[in-house]
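Continuing from the previous page of notes. For each protein in this section, the sequence appears first, followed by its structure tokens. Read the first protein now.
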Amino acid sequence: GSTTLHQGSSSLHQGSTTLHQGSSSLHQGSTTLHQGSSSLQQGSTTLHQGSSSLHQGSSSLHQGSSVPEFIPALVRPFPKAPPRKEVAKPRKKIISAILTDTPAVAEEEVRKSKKTAPKNGSLGVKKRSKSSNSVDCLVCGEEFTSSAPGEKWVKCVFCDGWSHELCTEGNGHYVCHVCDEE
């Protein structure tokens, strides 16, 4: 068991050597970092000198820099637009007039009367439509709806037409004058 322990401690010793070597390389890295920082300070001095030359011309700045200039048009060129189409339909002219002027008022009245004029040759007088319960007396022509309340009406036995009881002879079986002639 002691040999194993001794070998383990020797590997531990080798690990610490590696650690010291790593620390040494770390120390060398920090030296490089300090050297880089001083070159950075020198670069900033160069940059200040370059900014004065920027006022003289931007070409000297581009020649001195190591970053290539990026132009988006080189990566993806702008698309070419097709020629514009001409308008097929001309715009409607707008006519202005003084609306309080007598000829303008007369024109407006004529235009309104044309809009409200009845179509299909009718004169604008509408016939009274008969409702389903409106019946004319076969004798005198008076409508049932305009008769006096409680006035009695009788029905023709043959044509189912109606008449006032006062206009007829008043018998139980009423036959109108049209059906009586037949």
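Done with the first. The second protein uses the same format. Note its length before scrolling.
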Amino acid sequence: MKIKFLFLLLMAVSTSSVAENCWVHNCDKFIEVKVLRSSADFAERKGESLKLKLIDGATVSLNDSEDEDIKYYLIAYFPEVNYAAIETVEYSGEIRSVYLYPLKDAKAFYSNKRHIGGFPVLSPDRKRIAVFGFDIHARFSFNGLSIYNIESAPSMEFGFVSDVWGVSDVAWVNNNELSILKTTYNEEMDKYPSESATLKFKDGNIVFGAAEKSD
């Protein structure tokens, strides 16, 4: 069971522009290393300090603290829209959160961050982010899907949290459609049956499309 579950999570790391929620397997560092490699002009890690260079030229630092038992990980950087997603891990991993930070200047960075819960994927027109989390087994963190409009201040257009199935392999098909993988856990058979699906914006509503089942 554990091997297959880990495989599902690592598969998403390799196929998604941003990795899915594999926090229970300590993928935070792996994800950050990938982001840092592609954004050396923006971010660097020096020991327990994550340093970010903002648009106005200022540098901000987020420092891990053993006393407060908190760590920070850069999990996504969107230079096209001047946002970064940073995960905070507290109390030895028991509390995990993801925030979207504006990168205009230090004041905006600290004052206007937005809690989004999961991992963000930017739409082709750069007007939305799809945020998803996969934790149907442990259920310690966000397990669902949200859509945020980021044309001005981030605002949620759609969101749900599920106790039944998780979301992974999220990708934008176009500006109004997402492809996703819905996965449940069959405890009796020790399997993770999945089905691919689409999610469309239509007449101001969110509509799930037909699914294709697989084991």
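What the second structure shows: The longest helix spans residues 2-15. Residues 2-214 form one domain. We return to this in next week's lecture.
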